[in-house]
C-alpha cells in the first residue's frame, strides 16, 4: 500500500491564481481531511469528509473548496490564492469517522507570492 | 470545540523518561485524547489514544485522570531519535473533527 499520497510536493503561485492540491489513499478509508500547518500554530483543520459525497467545514475553510466523488480521492481547491495561504498542507485519512488513528500524507509546501 | 494547551518546548537526555502534560479543561464527553509525533518535513504520526485512565503501547503511555481535564504522555528511556514535535489533540466524536494543539518541541541531548 502506498498509504496517503499528495501531489505536488512544492508549488509556487501568484496572488489570484487557482490550483488543486491532490490527495489519494489506497487503504479504503472512509474519513479524509485537510490541514494546514503554519509556524508555531500546529495543524488547523480546513475541510473533512466522512465518506464519498459528504464534506464539511473545519476550523479554517475560507478560500478553499473540496469535493469527494470517490472513496480514494479528496482534492483541495484554492479558488484565488492569497499570500495568507502560504503554508504546508497535509492530507490525512482514517478507517472511519471515529476515534481511529489518522494517517497523514507527506505534505505540500505552498508559497503564494 | 475544546482546545488543548501544552508546553512549547522541553529538553531531556538520552535514557531519561519524558512526561509531556496537556491541558484540556473544556473536553467534551465524547472527545478522545490523541497524541501525534512529527519530524521535520514529514506528516504527523499517531502515537497513542485514550479516553480515560491509562493506556500503554509499545512506544508510550498515556495517563488521563478521572476528570479528563488533562493528560500526560510518557515516553520511557528516550533516545536522540525521539527529538520531534509532539501534538496533543482531541478527536471530537460529535463533530467528527480532530483538533490539534500547538505542539511541544522535544529536544533529546546526548
Itemize the secondary structure elements and their pairings.
The complex is a heterodimer of chains A (113) and B (110).
Chain A: E1 4-7, E2 10-13, E3 19-25, E4 31-37, E5 43-51, E6 54-57, E7 64-66, E8 76-78, E9 87-94, E10 103-104, E11 108-112
Parallel strand pairs in A: 2-11
Antiparallel strand pairs in A: 1-3, 3-8, 4-5, 4-9, 5-6, 7-8, 9-10, 9-11
Chain B: E1 9-13, E2 18-23, E3 31-38, E4 45-50, E5 53-56, E6 61-64, E7 70-75, E8 84-92, E9 97-100, E10 104-109
Parallel strand pairs in B: 1-10
Antiparallel strand pairs in B: 2-7, 3-4, 3-8, 5-6, 6-7, 8-9, 8-10
Q: How would you describe this structure to a colleague?
A:
The complex is a heterodimer of chains A (113) and B (110). With 113 residues, chain A is an all-beta fold. Chain A has strands at residues 4-7, 10-13, 19-25, 31-37, 43-51, 54-57, 64-66, 76-78, 87-94, 103-104, 108-112. In chain A, strands 2, 4, 5, 6, 9, 10 and 11 form a seven-stranded mixed sheet that branches. Chain A has a four-stranded antiparallel sheet with strand order 1-3-8-7, with no helix packed on it. In chain A, β4 and β5 form a beta hairpin. Chain A is globular and about 35 Å long. The N and C termini of chain A lie far apart (36 Å). The model of chain A has no long low-confidence stretch (mean pLDDT 93). Chain B has 110 residues and is mainly beta. Chain B is built from no helices and ten strands. Chain B has strands at 9-13, 18-23, 31-38, 45-50, 53-56, 61-64, 70-75, 84-92, 97-100, 104-109. Chain A binds chain B through residues 4, 31, 33, 35, 40-45, 48, 50, 56, 58-59, 90, 92, 97-99, 101-107, and chain B through 32, 34, 41-46, 49, 51, 87, 91, 93, 96-103.
Amino acid at each position: 500500500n502506498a498509504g496517503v499520497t499528495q501531489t505536488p510536493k512544492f508549488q509556487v503561485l501568484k496572488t489570484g491564481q487557482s490550483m488543486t492540491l491532490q490527495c489519494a489513499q489506497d487503504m479504503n478509508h472512509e474519513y479524509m481531511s485537510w490541514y494546514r500547518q503554519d509556524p508555531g500554530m500546529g495543524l488547523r483543520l480546513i475541510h473533512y469528509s466522512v465518506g464519498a459525497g459528504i464534506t464539511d467545514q473545519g476550523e479554517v475553510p475560507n478560500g478553499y473548496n473540496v469535493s469527494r466523488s470517490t472513496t480514494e480521492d479528496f482534492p483541495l481547491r484554492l479558488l484565488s490564492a492569497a499570500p495568507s495561504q502560504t503554508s504546508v498542507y497535509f492530507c490525512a485519512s482514517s478507517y472511519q469517522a471515529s476515534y481511529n488513528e489518522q494517517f497523514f500524507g507527506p505534505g505540500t509546501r505552498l508559497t503564494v507570492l | 470545540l475544546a482546545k488543548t494547551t501544552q508546553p512549547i518546548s522541553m529538553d531531556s537526555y538520552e535514557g531519561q523518561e519524558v512526561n509531556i502534560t496537556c491541558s484540556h479543561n473544556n473536553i467534551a464527553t465524547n472527545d478522545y485524547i490523541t497524541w501525534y509525533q512529527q519530524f521535520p518535513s514529514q506528516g504527523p504520526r499517531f502515537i497513542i489514544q485514550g479516553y480515560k485512565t491509562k493506556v500503554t503501547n509499545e512506544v508510550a503511555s498515556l495517563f488521563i485522570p478521572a476528570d479528563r481535564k488533562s493528560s500526560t504522555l510518557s515516553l520511557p528511556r528516550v533516545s536522540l531519535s525521539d527529538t520531534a514535535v509532539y501534538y496533543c489533540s482531541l478527536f471530537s466524536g460529535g463533530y467528527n473533527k480532530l483538533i490539534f494543539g500547538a505542539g511541544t518541541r522535544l529536544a533529546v541531548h546526548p
